[in-house]
Design goal:
By secondary structure, the chain is an all-alpha fold. It has helices spanning 2-23, 28-59, 63-89, 93-122.
């Protein structure tokens, strides 16, 4: 149980850091508020999303269907976070939605790249005579 909580904390922390990067380029006057609100959003959505994805991965064995499910859940998260940004930041909903799309796309794409790297590193290495190293 402690391992699961630790993994959820690490995933949430990494997501917060990655999603803060695009926000660093925002207007200095509101930058800190955007970043803090992003952290709030992630603390509310990230653990729930990751728990759902683990549970769904048990039941959805078709890779294409699972990926579609991930996309649908990400869209729900984007909309939910846009509402939080809208209520906290006092900006137009259109701007808040655009920010939510941007930061979630950045973390989603970097997450996919990280998974790809992990899968590559996890593959056995073969020598010239096809022996596993």
């Amino acid at each position: 149980m402690i391992n699961i909580i630790l993994i959820l904390v690490i995933l949430c922390g990494l997501t917060c850091l990655v999603e803060a990067i695009p926000l660093l380029f925002f207007n200095k006057a509101k930058r800190r508020k955007w970043i803090n609100t992003s952290f709030l959003c992630n603390f509310m959505t990230n653990p729930i999303l990751n728990i759902l994805l683990v549970i769904l991965s048990i039941y959805i064995t078709n890779q294409a269907l699972y990926f579609l499910t991930v996309i649908v859940l990400e869209i729900i998260v984007i909309i939910f976070e846009a509402f939080i940004f809208y209520n906290v930041m006092g900006e137009s909903f259109k701007k808040c939605l655009a920010v939510s799309v941007l930061i979630n796309m950045v973390s989603f794409i970097l997450g996919l790249l990280l998974l790809k790297i992990i899968n590559i590193l996890d593959q056995p290495t073969y020598s010239l005579d096809n022996e596993v190293l």
